[in-house]
Amino acid sequence: MSDCIFCKIAAGEIPAKKIYEDDLVVAFHDIRPVAPVHFLVIPKLHIPSMAELQPEHAEVMGRVMTVAAQVARETGCANGYRMIINTGKVGRQEVYHLHVHVVGGPEVLPAMVKY
Ligand code: 5GP
Ligand code: ZN
């Protein structure tokens, strides 16, 4: 996807503070952190959102989740964290390249969702 910002980060075409990269996924710090620890894990493959996820994506999504947990352990989330995948309009997704947010730090996070 030529106009996708996260594809460009994955390809190294625009800068990001990358924490981890392998053949399938990239983890990098969110540009507007909402907690002391806030990074994103993306598949290198352009999957727009969870709404488009298919059985053939199981391997890459397994990697996304295990890398998220590994990077969380390495970035000061020893006592826990929250993983968030905003999806679609209702989920207030802004960037339509599937990504997992990992948010945490030393303090207990606010309640999950407020109506
Ligand atoms: P969404 O609402 O789609 O789940 O979240 C998108 C996230 O991507 C936001 O937290 C936003 O701060 C982050 N983001 C958007 N553009 C960039 C960028 O160019 N670089 C980085 N590192 N994060 C970005
Ligand atoms: Zn993309």
Short key terms for the protein model shown above:
single chain; HIT family, subunit A; 115 residues; binds guanosine-5'-monophosphate; 20% helix; 5-stranded antiparallel β-sheet; 5 strands; alpha+beta
What's the total count of β strands? Answer: 5
Q: Which overall shape is indicated by the principal axes computed on the Cα atoms?
A: globular
Q: Helix/strand-derived class?
A: alpha+beta
Strand order, largest beta sheet: 1-2-3-5-4
Estimate the strand proportion: 15-25%
The end-to-end distance, rounded to whole angstroms, is 35 Å
State the name of the first-level CATH class: Alpha Beta
Q: What's the helix-strand series?
A: HEEEHEE
Note poorly predicted spans.
none
Query: Biggest sheet, open or closed, and with what strands and sense?
Result: 5 strands, antiparallel
Q: Could you say what the CATH architecture is? A: 2-Layer Sandwich
Describe, in short, the structure shown.
This protein is of the alpha+beta class. The protein is 20% helix and 22% strand. It has a single domain, classed as HIT family, subunit A.
What does this molecule look like?
The protein is of the alpha+beta class and 115 residues long. The chain has a single domain, classed as HIT family, subunit A (2-Layer Sandwich). The protein is 20% helix and 22% strand. The protein is built from 2 helices and 5 strands; from the N terminus they run H-E-E-E-H-E-E. It has helices at residues 5-10, 58-74, and strands spanning 18-21, 25-29, 37-43, 81-84, 100-104. Strands 1-2-3-5-4 form a 5-stranded antiparallel β-sheet, with helices on one face. The site of guanosine-5'-monophosphate has 12 residues, from strand 2.
